[in-house]
């Protein structure tokens, strides 16, 4: 029960208390730009107020950027009112955040941050930083969230804005709650509560009393928690907040469960369910059914428990709430275990485990999306600054050209031909360098992709708290990275070095997938491993695809065969597996048919650059083994590259049509 309470409370914090003051609850006049009076400014304020009212009535059923905000943005942009534009973008970011689209949310908050900085408005800046902090809390990056809220508090104190100060203090309390520091969270909630009392802010009083109750409940002080819950409920009645009443009913029910008073708990949980159904908040309805079902489960009333838990699962699946599906599956597993139906209990246990992994992946995706949004925003800002500077330079250059045009005309005509010839020579010399640079760029795309996947594998053991395997994995990974970094600065490495990298990589993958596959690495005896040179990590993406998309779906007894053999003046490399095959893998993929993977695209480009450089033949073919033998399965990847050896001077040479072509590959 404690876990579900925590999830409900975190949801409450993110939607309500985390949004206190900055999510539209503060008086509008606190943010009006007093320096930009006028009719248009007043119209924008009225449109924003209408958007608040319109969106509040419909919630998730209303467009995020409604017609009121669109019109408000047009007017503010026309009048270059950057403070109001910042408020609009901040509000849009808040709405995207409440729908779990954290990447879009961060894009709009970054826009708002840039405009608020230009406006030099500390109150507005504090509100933006508070909103960014809420986004970080949603993706469980509590250290960054705390940094943002502390910045907001400092700016609000400089501006003397008591509303924003209270908001920042409340948010810092929420971060401490998320980190399990309940004593500290109580201190911050009490400070915020005192400010709400001084301002007679009943919404703030309701929120902070409920927050205090949840913190006290976590510390085992149930009676004190109930007092705060009932006080919060009273304030919610005064302001007629049905959402707040529902949250209080759930909190009170949870407290009574801790007191082992399930019948009293059900009384309040049923009230919460009724209000949530009236409000049409499907997520809260699913949570209420889950809490009621769990209470009946503790009372051994299994039929009632099953009815509510299945209803919770049905609603959660319809709206795609992963953590609620995971919680419902776990509780249904316990229910069927009590019924003695161990088969069904096992099925729901597996479902819960699957969704638990999905929740972890979703958090990672949200975190990446947020960081990408920050990076993209910063990149766009720098690009705009560069364009502005370039525009200034161009204007200055044009002015100078006009001034000297008449006097320099004869000189320009005289030296034009000479300049043309010099530029032409530079272009010819630079063409070959550009080709070499393209090859380096293509190769540099491989290493980050490879490192990211290896780190993801290490993350699995860390999340599972497997210290021994984590340590072993990190040790092997460090050895592998030493080889990778050593080879990444060269166009070619020896065949011996390449096979060492592949062995390290395959051993790491075997450890990652609990040794669910074996591998064979065959080198033709005619190939001298010390003198034969090959492009680094050419086969690694296909080995990874064989493991991830070919062997992993079959579970166990996977086999991978990698071979290097000589064919006249060429080297033929083959990667073969006994997985589900490329045709089945494409059918299972969500990508459109005919879409080449990034690995295939990059490899083809590398081979094309190699062909241009050596003049020899290169080729890449991928074949489903069923095309040759209907009773066979798996995928065969064949790569053909020119034979490159090292001469007596230690320089690599290409062998082509029985003659040697001496060329020195460029190193990065």
Structure description:
This protein is an alpha+beta fold and 668 residues long. The chain has 3 domains: 1-179, Serine Threonine Protein Phosphatase 5, Tetratricopeptide repeat (Alpha Horseshoe); 182-193 and 200-270, Serine Threonine Protein Phosphatase 5, Tetratricopeptide repeat (Alpha Horseshoe); 445-662, 2-Layer Sandwich (Heat Shock Protein 90), CATH 3.30.565. The protein has helices spanning 2-15, 39-58, 67-78, 82-98, 102-119, 122-138, 142-159, 162-178, 182-199, 202-218, 222-238, 242-258, 262-279, 282-298, 302-319, 322-339, 342-444, 446-463, 467-487, 495-512, 540-551, 582-588, 598-614; strands at 493-494, 517-523, 533-534, 558-567, 570-577, 619-624, 635-646, 652-656, 659-662. Strand 7 and strand 8 (652-656) form a beta hairpin. Helix 12 (242-258) runs antiparallel to helix 13 (262-279). The protein starts with a helix and ends in a 6-residue tail after the last strand.
Topology, element by element:
Elements lengths: L1 H14 L23 H20 L8 H12 L3 H17 L3 H18 L2 H17 L3 H18 L2 H17 L3 H18 L2 H17 L3 H17 L3 H17 L3 H18 L2 H17 L3 H18 L2 H18 L2 H103 L1 H18 L3 H21 L5 E2 H18 L4 E7 L9 E2 L5 H12 L6 E10 L2 E8 L4 H7 L9 H17 L4 E6 L10 E12 L5 E5 L2 E4 L6
Parallel strand pairs: 2-4
Antiparallel strand pairs: 1-3, 4-5, 5-7, 6-7, 7-8, 8-9
Helix pairs in contact: 2-3, 3-4, 4-5, 4-6, 5-6, 5-17, 6-7, 6-8, 7-8, 8-9, 9-10, 10-11, 10-12, 11-12, 12-13, 13-14, 14-15, 14-16, 15-16, 16-17, 17-23, 18-19, 19-20
């Amino acid at each position: 029960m404690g876990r579900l309470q925590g999830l409900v409370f975190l949801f409450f914090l993110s939607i309500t208390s985390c949004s206190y003051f900055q999510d539209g609850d503060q008086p509008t006049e606190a943010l009006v730009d007093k320096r930009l009076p006028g009719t248009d400014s007043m119209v924008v304020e009225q449109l924003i107020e209408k958007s608040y009212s319109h969106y509040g009535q419909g919630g998730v059923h209303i467009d995020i950027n409604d017609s009121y905000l669109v019109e408000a943005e047009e007017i503010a942009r026309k009048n270059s009112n950057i403070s109001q534009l910042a408020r609009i973008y901040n509000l849009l970011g808040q709405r995207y955040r409440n729908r779990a689209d954290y990447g879009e949310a961060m894009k709009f908050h970054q826009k708002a941050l840039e405009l608020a900085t230009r406006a030099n408005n500390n109150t507005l800046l504090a509100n933006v930083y508070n909103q960014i902090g809420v986004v970080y809390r949603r993706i469980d990056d509590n250290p960054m969230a705390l940094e943002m809220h502390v910045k907001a508090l400092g700016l609000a104190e400089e501006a003397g804005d008591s509303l924003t100060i209270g908001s920042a203090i409340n948010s810092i309390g929420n971060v401490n709650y998320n980190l399990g520091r309940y004593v500290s969270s109580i201190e911050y909630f009490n400070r915020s509560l005192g400010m709400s009392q001084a301002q007679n802010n009943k919404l703030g009083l309701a929120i902070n009393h409920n927050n205090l109750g949840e913190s006290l409940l976590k510390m085992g002080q149930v009676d004190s928690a109930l007092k705060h819950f009932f006080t919060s409920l009273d304030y919610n009645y005064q302001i007629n907040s049905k959402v707040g009443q529902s949250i209080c009913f759930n909190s009170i029910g949870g407290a009574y469960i801790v007191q082992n008073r399930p019948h009293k708990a059900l009384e309040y949980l049923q009230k919460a369910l009724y209000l949530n159904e009236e409000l049409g908040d499907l997520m809260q309805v699913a949570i209420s059914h889950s809490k009621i079902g769990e209470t009946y489960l503790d009372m051994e009333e299994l039929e009632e428990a099953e009815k509510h838990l299945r209803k919770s699962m049905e609603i959660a699946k319809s709206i795609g709430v992963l953590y609620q599906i995971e919680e419902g599956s776990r509780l249904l597993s316990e229910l069927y275990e009590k019924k003695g139906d161990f088969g069904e209990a096992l099925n729901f246990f597996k479902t819960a485990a699957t969704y638990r992994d999905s929740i972890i992946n979703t958090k990672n995706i949200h975190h990446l999306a947020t960081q990408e949004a920050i990076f993209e925003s910063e990149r766009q800002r720098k690009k705009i600054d560069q364009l502005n500077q370039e525009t200034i330079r161009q204007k200055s250059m044009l002015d100078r050209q006009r001034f000297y045009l008449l006097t320099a005309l004869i000189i320009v005509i005289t030296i034009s031909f000479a300049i043309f010839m010099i530029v032409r020579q530079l272009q010819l010399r630079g063409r070959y360098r550009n080709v070499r640079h393209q090859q380096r760029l293509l190769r540099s795309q491989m290493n980050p992709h490879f490192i990211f996947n290896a780190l993801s594998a290490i993350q699995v053991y860390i999340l599972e708290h497997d210290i021994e395997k984590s340590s072993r994995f990190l040790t092997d990974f460090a050895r592998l990275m030493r080889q990778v970094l050593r080879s990444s600065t060269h166009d070619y490495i020896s065949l011996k070095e390449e096979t060492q990298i592949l062995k390290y990589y395959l051993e790491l993958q075997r450890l990652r997938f609990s040794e669910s596959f074996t591998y064979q690495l065959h080198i033709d005896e005619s190939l001298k491993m010390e003198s034969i040179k090959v492009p680094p990590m050419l086969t690694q993406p296909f080995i990874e695809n064989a493991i991830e998309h070919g062997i992993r779906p079959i579970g166990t007894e996977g086999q991978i065969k990698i071979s290097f053999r000589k064919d006249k003046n060429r080297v033929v490399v083959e990667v073969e597996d006994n997985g589900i095959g490329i045709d089945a893998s494409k059918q299972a993929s969500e990508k459109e048919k005919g879409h080449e993977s990034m690995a295939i695209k990059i490899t083809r480009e590398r081979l094309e650059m190699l062909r241009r450089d050596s003049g020899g033949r290169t080729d890449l073919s991928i074949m489903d083994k069923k095309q040759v033998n209907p009773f066979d399965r798996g995928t065969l990847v064949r790569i053909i590259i020119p034979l490159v050896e090292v001469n007596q001077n230690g320089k690599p040479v290409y062998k082509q049509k029985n003659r040697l072509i001496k060329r020195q590959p460029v190193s990065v």
